Amino acid sequence: MRKLLFASAGVAALVSAGCATTTQEVREAAPSAPATQAPAAPSAPAEAAPVDNPLLARWTGPYGGVPPFDKVRIEHFKPALEAAMEENRRAIAAIANDPAAPTFENTIAALEDAGRTLDDVETLYGIWGSSMNGPEFQAIQREMAPRLAAFSDEITQNEKLFQRIEAVYQSPDKAKLTPEQQRLTWLRYTNFVRSGAKLDAGAKKRLVDINQRLASLFTGFSQNVLADEEGYAVVLESEADLAGLPDSVRAGAAAAAEARGLKGKWAITNTRSSMEPFLTYSARRELREKVWRNYVNRGDNGDARDNNQIISEVLQLRAERAKLLGYATHAHWRLENTMAKTPERAMQLMEAVWTPAVARAREEVADMQAIANKEGAKLKIEPWDYRYYAEKVRKAKYDLDQNEVKPYLQLEKLREGMFWVAGELFGFSFTPVDGVPVYHPDVRVWEVKDKASGKHVGLWYFDPYARQGKRSGAWMNAYRNQERYHGEVSTIVSNNSNFVKGAPGEAVLISWSDAETLFHEFGHALHGLNSNVTYPTLSGTAVARDYVEFPSQLLEHWLSTPEVLNTYALHYQTGKPIPPALVAKIEKASNFNQGFGTVEYLSSALVDMKLHLAGSQKIDPDAFERDTLGALGMPKEIVMRHRTPQFSHVFAGDGYSAGYYSYLWSDTLTADAFEAFTEGKGAYDRTVAERLRKNVFSVGNTVDPAEAYRSFRGKDAGIDALMRKRGFPVPGAAKKTPAK
């Protein structure tokens, strides 16, 4: 019930600018639980559940119960979803038809228990969809997606239920509720209205049809992208094809080839984790172009997996739905309950950053072209050259070679560094546990405790490696939300990545950018682990879309702190810490390539917003993308981070639609928030960290995000700190004049 009703308001899948987060995927269990461990939240009666379907059973085992991954079979999903929906339907009917006058407890709070079994089933269903997908499961997705959408509409269009919610919302007794109860009441009422609860019968029927069709289109879009990621690879036949590649990239490519039955060769797969290092280091320009074209043309190859028609229909349906609900455009509907509130405010921020970002990118291209010319390369910089020549510029300007840095960035050591940071900032400890079921042998589990008291906080699952059937990118899931509604219920969270797995026993080395993403996703996990609320609907990362990326982006700052680098950035062969001189170079080059990074991301965010501000006009996605970027003055040497035909954030669901700007909005908070530490005693200032935990990481959606941020910082965040962070000119800053 929580997931179905609040997917549009909370976080259904946190995917990192690249990140997707999910609460109860997606968005989203060892030794005996401590004696103080509270029982899991109660499930609704299970009399409708076939006893032989493990997906319908209450989670059992330690830590308040853990997901029964060892018992899941694909044939379980459809009957489990059907039975769980029927159980939820009965629970909703009991609330809607309650003869007692509506109160917070018998209506708003009662909805917290309705659908718990469905939440659990959908958690497992979402994990299989993102991490264990294949043809058999995809057939179930295609059938069940519209049915799940229709079921969600069935609840929000239940007139008796809405009348009870509205009665509680409008009752003078609401003022007697706790602030959290008032917030939950407001959220329930608001989301029912935003989902069409007040429409007439004809409009409601059309809304159901639209949502079912959209669900099918979202499923088709994501399956097409996954097929293009798995269906394309560039196979390298000889040593000559490996020119320029460091050993770690070669090893990953060899492992990828062997997994495809091509032992003795090397494969560059069609995922970001494989594409980016190849484009950065390969001296073979024609191969760089081939790898680049495979990647940027996912979903755009004019074949059966082409997504352009899907996108066009999605946009039409979203525009029609917005009109039905009384909004000018889909963008206006989506942003109403965010921090930005309106598309105009989001556009104002993006446009303020776009101009200096493009100017910086043009400077970067000029620097790269100069090096290419000096080397005698008869070429003009193209998108497949950008990363390659950027590395040459980095080396020339800052004497910094990423190949010097990467040997110190071991995945497992950085994971230990993240744990240490969590201990310093929030007092957490992480202990590996065995005996907890997992859905793949690559997945490992840690118990999280409070260091001071020893109290159990939650479980953290880690699924780091790319494989067939797993979507690309990085994301966080919440398998179970923290709550206190029926006693203390601890959270279960996961982080998921797509690093290229090396040979057995070999350290997995990652890039600096990948290390930042690792910390980013862990920030989402810490947001969930710190949660301290009563009601699960308001728990953890279930906050406004343009606020949810704030805690995660903030944690990226701790990667570059000396305390982390000196202890956890250890050479994979010698075990020696990264040299201070190399750390100094990293710091000096911290704003390097910000033009590229900002333009690559922001072009996607601007196209997303403009697509959804276009209203009901019929759109050719490729043409719209091309024309919009042309009007914006997009440098031809850069391509969108997520081109429209593969933009899963936006077209594999409603989650980030008209909302990809959220990363930039959150980063205005991030930059300002980290300055609270630097203005204090530094990155590990315990007083500032406690203020951050109390006002941001622990409160979930119990407080308006703008109010929560002001409680932490004492002021609103302006754009100045963001511009300083990226090395761009600060608007209105006084220009220094030379001393006479």
Description:
- The protein has 740 residues and is of the alpha+beta class.
- Helix content is 52%, strand content 7%.
- It contains 28 helices and nine strands.
- The protein has helices spanning 2-6, 74-96, 104-113, 116-131, 135-156, 159-170, 179-194, 201-231, 247-259, 272-281, 285-296, 308-324, 330-335, 343-374, 386-398, 402-405, 411-426, 512-529, 545-555, 562-568, 580-588, 594-613, 621-632, 648-651, 662-679, 686-697, 705-713, 720-726, and strands spanning 14-16, 18-23, 233-236, 266-269, 428-433, 444-450, 456-465, 475-480, 491-499.
- The strands form two sheets. Strands 1, 2, 5, 6, 7, 8 and 9 form a seven-stranded mixed β-sheet that branches. It has a two-stranded antiparallel ribbon with strand order 3-4.
- Strand 6 and strand 7 (456-465) form a beta hairpin.
- The radius of gyration is 25 Å and the shape is globular.
- 52% of the residues are buried.
